[in-house]
Specification:
Homeodomain-like_sf, 10% strand, elongated, 4 domains, 5-stranded parallel β-sheet, 6-stranded mixed β-sheet, cytoplasm, Response regulator, Rossmann fold, Alpha-Beta Plaits, alpha/beta
Amino acid sequence: MKVLLVDDEKHVRDAIRLLVNWKQYGIVTILEAQDGESAINMVNTHHPEIIMTDMMMPIMNGVKLLEWLHTHAPDSKTIVISGHDDFSLLRHTLKYGGTDYILKPIDPEQLNEALDKAIQAWNKDEELRHTNRELNIEMNQIKPMYWDKLLSNLISEPSAYDQAAEQLEKELHLSRTIRECRVAILSLDTMERSVKNKFSHNLDLLLFSLINICNEFLVNDQRGYAFRHWNSDNEIVLLLWKDQSGSEAFLAKINEGIRTALHTRVDFGIGSSRSFPADLALSYQEARDALRQRNLKSKETWIHSTSKTAKTVQPTLNFSKYEERIQLAIRSGSLDQIQETVQEWMDAVKLSEAITLEQLDHWWREYRVMKRRWVQQFFSNISEDQVKQLLLDEPSSLIVPLDEHGILSLSLWQQELTRSIVHLSKLLLESQQKDKNVIFEIAEFLQNHYHEDVSLQDIANRFYLSREYISRKFKQEFEVNLSDYLGQIRMSKAKVLLRNPHLRISQVAEMVGYQDEKYFSKVFKKLEGLTPNEYRKTANSI
């Protein structure tokens, strides 16, 4: 805390210094001035919390100083120390915020009491100021969210206007006499990559910056307001209610402001002038359509409206037409074949005169559906959660592949599509290799445990796989089902054991996993065409 002593007599200032235990009050800096003019310079430079001043001084007296402090330093607390017992001076002190009036010669006790009272008053006011600052910060944080929600609802629920009309007029200068309004949408889709990368970890800051720039133009001119659309992620909406015909030119002016501040421009979609508030939704939809139908292959304008959007009729191009070729390329595991197939698709795309965001979104959705279907086909033994995990390398929404200048880059798109398909092909090959390995592990297990009572369920439990999956994969790999494969092993071992004349048939049956001799004989004859006894006689005679 700082104290300023103002008196034209130095011995008075020295006396005040000696009469107070400054550390006791937390005062670390004591400043001095010999007149009101010098005091003003000190206040402007150092902003002391407590000011002790004489009333009668040359150049500028204490009366004028109190008046100046009341206007320019209202938070400071002032104690008057005067040699004049004058009621008019006392009244002036109280009128302009003085906390005490002490007469000279100075009484130490009175001085310390006055200082303590002034400090307590300053602390109390500072606590109130701190609370108000916190409330203001909180209100400033909440207020934009409040307007975002209110104005977003106004688009979908025009009837909400009547309740908010007075507040909108007071806060946003949206007059009740407004009968028409246009809606514009600021698009981040085609913003330059360098800017989006800069804000990649704090998109909220980018949106906040863009909204502030827009409102610097709109609010100052009282012609509209920009807000974050509550019902759509990362979309900035502008309501334009003044000078409808000049809206496109004004948006271009805002865009120039964005270029100056962020070194980039953005695309705006704008709807036609519609009845306010009843038809805001129609103008909003027109603005969305204008953005979705603009040609991403060229950059002729930054301001897009449905009236200016080219309506060229083009042959329908569906990504799903290439599904079979892409699926075969994935199964092949060949990078060359994948690149060749993607190239076929890109060659077809390049023939399009225009490519719109709507088309890109359609193709993206087609690819997402196909990829999910492929994953379910390729990895038939996995759960829905595992399917989602395999699809995590794809973003959940369309990311427009743009070059540094915000124009659609077919080469970047081709690279990304190729990367995605190669990744899936690699996962498929790894899975197939893993499946093959586990099936051979099962076959080896059967070779080593053929003499035990082994069931398909036992194997499924041991290898943590379903019985259906094991049966299908085993048949694919060995072209025979698992039970027949196990039977072949047992019969092969039985034929070797039957050559030993000292082993009874029942012993041989038990040694190859059959507890029932009759059942063993039945299976043996079915597979070998001879009973075990007949085989033994034939084999031994040979």
